[in-house]
Each structure stands twice: as structure tokens, then as C-alpha cells.
Amino acid sequence: MTQDQLKQAVAQAAVDFILPRLDDKSIIGVGTGSTANCFIDALALHKGAFDGAVASSEATAARLKGHGIPVYELNTVSDLEFYVDGADESDENLNLIKGGGAALTREKIVAAVAKTFICIADASKLVPVLGTFPLPVEVIPMARSHVARELVKLGGDPAYREGVVTDNGNIIIDVFNLQITNPVELERQINAIVGVVTNGLFAARPADMLLLGTPEGVKTLSK
Ligand code: 5RP
């Protein structure tokens, strides 16, 4: 199976899981990236089964609207049963690295509101220790050098992601060469640096369920 087929399989598995749990008032949180796009396309076939969605990025909002799915502002929504999104890495405890698509802050906000965070990923994303994928950090532009120096003190090698501006008007610093053995603590430490908006560790609020696409079928890992 190709990586694309694995992504489509996990996207379909997520739709199959949430569909019987939705009603015509349900609003679904939707992530960003190529796997989340597969989910949007699969979800669009069941538009009548739910009310609409909250998007974690402008790109996702555009794709949802393109399918005719109503997109709500998060501030107008009190209940979000599910948030479905991809990841750049997951460990076996469902701690994640996200932000390869620079949408980490909005993704983290929508995940915080959702009752159940379902992560969908192909098998290449499951790792024993997080950190091979460089950790994205969203930063207020004027704090770039300060934050980079502080990240070096935490043992990382920061690199400015050239040419990328987030949906919030900020920049991304990718942190290379981290061995993330305590993701909750590192998430807290990086978020405490002045000028950091948030970082791509989802450990304080990990996924609740990981649907992992493997050549043998979709495997489910739960907290
Ligand atoms: C975007 C993300 C994505 O979920 C992550 O980059 C995975 O993307 P893909 O499904 O394309 O591999 O965090 O900010």
C-alpha cells in the first residue's frame, strides 16, 4: 500500500468511528494537512449526518467550504465531541509532535475544546521517542532571536522556517536534535519562553485515540 492509501484508510476509519456517534447538531473539529484532507473528503460524503465543522486553519476552512460543509468560529461553539487531525510523530502514549503544516496553535486550541481527539496517521509516524521530526514552535516575529537562544539552552538546534507566516501572522522555528523523553515537561518549558505562542508538542493534551494505517490494516491505539 502507498502512503496515500494508508492515509485514506485511516481517514475512512475515523469517519466510520464518529458517524454513528453524530447527530444533526454535531460540530466536528477538523485538523490540517494531507491526512486531515483525506478525512475532510471522506466526511463530505455524509454531510447530512452532522451540522458543521470548526477548522484548525484557513486551508482546512477553505476545503470544508469547498465541499459545502458549514464552518463555524470556535467562539460560537460550546460543544465539540470530536477533533480529528494528523500528526508528524506519535509515541505509544499518544503524545504528539504537530505543526509540520504550521497550524499547530489553532490545532492545539481546537484539540483543547474537543472531548475526544482522534489522531489519524500512517504507520511511519509512530516512533519510540519523539524528536526525530524537528519540533515546530510558533513565535512572535520580534522574539525570534531571543526564543532561538533559549531553545539552544534547552538542548535543541533551532532553525527559522524561511518564508512561512502562520494564519496568526507569526513565524515558525523548527527545533532539531531533541530526544524528547519527557514531552509534558518540555512542552511546558518551551511554552514558558517569552515570545513563544505555542509549541508543537501535544502532551499536556495528547490524543485520546490513534488510528494508525499499516499494510495489515488500521490499528487502534487508545489512552
Ligand atoms: C499541521 C499538522 C499536521 O497534522 C501534520 O503536519 C501531519 O501532516 P500530514 O497529514 O500531511 O502528514 O500538524 O500543522
TrEMBL record:
Matches recorded under Pfam families: Rib_5-P_isom_A (PF06026)
Transferase among keywords: no
Catalysis: reaction(s): aldehydo-D-ribose 5-phosphate = D-ribulose 5-phosphate
Sites where the protein binds substrate: 32-35, 85-88, 98-101, 125
A GO MF term: ribose-5-phosphate isomerase activity
Key words, A-Z: Isomerase
Highest rank taxon of the organism: Bacteria
Single GO biological process annotation from the record: D-ribose metabolic process
An annotated GO cellular component: cytosol
Xref: InterPro entries: NagB/RpiA_transferase-like, Ribose5P_isomerase_typA_subgr, Ribose5P_isomerase_type_A
Recorded metabolic or biological pathway in which this protein acts: Carbohydrate degradation; pentose phosphate pathway; D-ribose 5-phosphate from D-ribulose 5-phosphate (non-oxidative stage): step 1/1
Protein family (similarity comment): Belongs to the ribose 5-phosphate isomerase family.
Assembly, per entry: Homodimer.
Function: Catalyzes the reversible conversion of ribose-5-phosphate to ribulose 5-phosphate.
Protein name (Swiss-Prot/TrEMBL): Ribose-5-phosphate isomerase A
Organism: Pseudomonas endophytica
Gene name for this UniProt entry: rpiA
